[in-house]
Each structure stands twice: as C-alpha cells, then as structure tokens.
Design brief:
By secondary structure, the protein is an all-alpha fold. The protein is built from 13 helices and no strands.
Length: about 325
Amino acid sequence: MTSPFLERFRGCSAREELVKLARLIPLEARLTLASGRFAAYLVIMLTPLGIVVYIAGLSLLPAAPQNAELLRLTYPGRSVSDIVDLLGRGFERGIVGGLLDLASGYWLSLPSLVVVAIVVSEFIAGGRSSGSLNVIATKPTLRSVVVASKLLVFSLATLGLVAVTYIGIAALFSAAFFPSPSGVAKALQLLSDDLAKMVLVTWEYCMVVAGVTLLISVFTKRSFLPILGVLGYYFGVAMGSSLLPTIIPGGMGRRVAESLFYLNFENDARLALTHWLNRSPQGAELVGFRPSPETAFLSMHLTLVLSVLLSLLILEHRDLD
C-alpha cells in the first residue's frame, strides 16, 4: 500500500527539492498576480483601506491643518513628539479598538474566508481538473513542491496585503490627528506592537483557511467543492457550538460545545487577538464559558501545520487521474 507513496520520493533529495521550490516561486508569483481570482482577493482584502482613503480624502485630511493649529494653541511650545506622547494613549485605544472591530467583523470573518477559499481551491483541484498539475509535477519535480510554491507565494502576498491595510489605515488616521511627518512616524511607532499582532493573527487566520481548503481540494477535481466544504465546516461548527448545549442535556452538551468552539478558526483568531491586545474576548458568550487563549493559539497553529502537511503528503500518495 505504501509502495506507490515511497516510489514518489525515491531518488529525491531534500536539497534539490528546495532548489526547485526556489525556482518555482518567481513563476508562481507571476501566475498568481495575473490570476482573476487573486485580483478578486486583492479587492476584498483592500476594500476597508479603500473606504478609509475615501473618507480621509473627503473629511479627515482636509481638516488636518485646523487640527494642527488647534494642537499648537492647546499645547503652546510643545513639539509634535511631545503632543503625541501626551495624547498617544487615548489615540492608541481608539485606533486599536476600531481596527479590532474591523478585523473581527471583516478580516477574521466570512468575507476573507470565502475569498481565501476561492483562491486556494485552484491550487490542487483546479490543477487536477485542467491536468496542468500532472504536466508540471512529473519527476523529478514532486507535486508537493509545486503546490508548496503556490502556497508560499499566497502566504507572502497575504502577509503583504494585511500589513499594507493595517498600517495604511493607521497612517491615515495618524496624519489626520497629528498632521506632520514626525507626528505620523511617532504615532505609528506607538501603534507598532499592536499593529504587528493584528497583522500576524489575521495572516494566520487566512493561512488556516487556506490549509483547510487545500486539504479538502486533495480529494476532488472540482474547485467549487473545497469552497463549499470550507463554508460547510464554518457554519456547521458555529451552529454546533451554539445549539448543542440546548440539545444535549447536562454537562455533555457544554463540553462538546467547548470543543467545537476551538475548532472554529474564526473564534480562535478573535480570542487570540483580543487576548494579545488585552481586550475582552469575543464569541464566548454564545457557548457560556470562559475560553482559553492558549488553547485557541494552539488550535490555530495545529490546524495550519497539520492541514498543510497532510495535504502535501496525501497529494503525493493519491492517484490524481
């Protein structure tokens, strides 16, 4: 049973496969940037930034000179850096709170989940249906190396998009409230730790969705089925964690709901982020218990690592014809 699997790896060198992976990355980057699905992904991920740019252009930035004059009158003799130090904590709470609400309702929710699943579903299922995966991934190149290059390009692109969005929104509000280059730089420095946490958690959430989509797509040639599978998992786990305590009597229903809570990667990401930012956890009120941020972190990490590794291993074992 394992002989076809071992045959795929016979004669392979880890060093050679890494070299092939490095050579595939520029090719996959060009193909990804030219993809219509990735263009839709760009639009969805950057929509909040576009809305903020529009609002800032209409009202916030035109009022910046008046804000600067008001700060000079209110704090005479103070430098912009001193003013940011005085007002920075309140500014930080407002910006971080707003970004957290936006992340919870948008990037760590259904819109990004759907568009990530749409893009990643093409990595294996789309390649299988068109036959391109077998054409590219013939010896001496492993299928897993080809798909890993696609996933790595998507991972780096997602990290860049998320970072640009969070930092761009924070910079626009900083420019409106502290209208000078030094004021913006000081405000962004003040927000840097929280922005880094938001970027990392949002990136990992998107990659967890990508990993689960990849795992489902190993078993089908139709690229729409992984999307439906991820949506079914998302809604099934969410409904189960909410309804099971009322359906199953006693402590059993509560314990099952607690387990399902951590299987929902949206809950894990929100809980991890709110804990990391020292905010009140979101979502636990639906299951009536105090969730553990450590368990949420662990669940996200394990889901990402196991889903990607299993996808790549099964991809080498299965007959894709």
